[in-house]
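Input for the complex:
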Amino acid sequence: MAPTFSKAMKSLEVDDSVWLPLIGKATVQDHGDVALPCHSLASRLRKSPQDIAEQICLLVEEDLAPIATVSSISGFVNISAKPEWLSKSLSLLLSDPRLGIESEKPLTFAVDYSAPNVAKEMHVGHLRSTVIGDSIVRMLEFKGHRAIRENHVGDWGTPFGMLIEHLLDLGEDQAANELGVGDLDSFYKQARAKFVSDDEFADRSRRRVVLLQGGDSETLRLWRVLVDESMRYFNEVYSMLGVLLTDEDIRGESSYRDLLPKVVERLNEVGILEQSEGADVVFPGGWVNREGDPLPMIIRKADGGYNYSTSDLACIIDRVERMGCDGFLYVVGTPQKQHFEMVFQVAIQAGFMDEDHQVTHVNFGSVLDTDGKVLKSREGEVIKLHDLLEEAIRRAEDAINQKNPDLVGEERKKVARTVGIGAVKYADLSTERTKDYVFDWERMLSFEGNTAPYLQYAYARICSIFRKWGGERDSLRDNFESLLKDELSILSNEELTLSRRLVEFPTIVDESITTFSPHKLCKHLHSVASSFASFYENCSILKEENAMLSTRRLALCDLTARELQLGLGIMGIDVPERM
Ligand code: ARG
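Predicted:
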């Protein structure tokens, strides 16, 4: 369709860059599937929008005839897909296990996500990163790319001096215990409190940092205890969430420590390293502090310690030179926007990467409670993710119990897990990621609206249709076109609407992945499920006497279920067969 339009618009001397952004989904479904509003072209072409729309129609009509009809209504060009085209597209999707999603020339991406900090509670921001990052990894892999998961855990730096000393004060066993069950925040706070109030402790802590950085083996052993116990807790959260991250994916800040002096050396070599008050710094240019002075990026502090930015620079060297990545994605909250902009700029200036590398800070907003404040526990503390996820499962079990009391025992438990965890993940993914996201139990667990339970329920309902039917689902997947040949006229409105939605799937998946925006896919799946609901209400399926019609409707059920399953699956959300 696009080339036809392009040709027509060129003849009117309207460039692609002008009309392409205008074309979009028709807002009035009865008018068509896609619409091109011509109002903003009026002054350029010195004609009324209606005249322009009519003229465009005449220009494209003939070429589009095999696939669509065009009409002009009040200054809009409306384009409707023809049922023949629709049935062809449907049959292509039905017979394709990938539902029309094409593989791309494989690229290698490092996806930096989750990244909690050792001996600190994993907070809701890390939950967002984990959920969004994991869905991006799955989508990239489905498109045929290689996605290398990198969990850039905060496991190095000056706080480890005080954390190790606190570990020694508590006794290793006791400390390991607290950390392993996820009492990370109180551990960190206790250490911090001693550090500010007790000079002797503070001195010990500073000496410990020196030992740690010098590679003292006993200190490194104690450090490992902190890391391992915290990871044990993080892994428990990962396993509850069902994300792909494993111990193999840990690339903590500590793993770049040998590269840090090299970063300094190389920045010096290219001549961008400067001295400022005893520290080694770089001025990326373009950023100023509150006083209006150029903002430095501190590479090595006056005391010889390195910074967060330094390890991110080392990390880029590693990803480009050792891993040979074509691109890297940082799934990290919006507050770190400036940090990444500066790091990327310095990395380019220093030649650590070039403009060809696709580098994106996949940023996201905060998690708020229903009052619009940052989400906290009832006691005003950081929420323990483990408790939060348990609560999700418990609440889901209650909801399922009410909806379907027949579901009992182990199966109910399993479904509660799928629904509860699915609800938490979906609530996050279905919000445009750059916006703040409101954590609302009622909404995310509702069986109505753009929620996981709504989609999962639609899926389970289709499974139940197929259980009743008892036939071979594969048999529905070939020859869909033949089911429509002589029966086009009885394609009901609900079938048409559902079909139109279903065929959009591959385009939407591509759009979601190229913009790293899972919410677009969520929106699509919700529109599929709601069109399915009205189709199911208005069209008889198993009771339909016309066998051809019944088969055709079953085929639509099949495709709907597969889209829901695949669409949710590539975002890391499971579907239950019953619920
Ligand atoms: N640990 C950091 C935090 O909790 C996030 C690290 C993100 N990744 C990175 N390469 N900087 O804020």
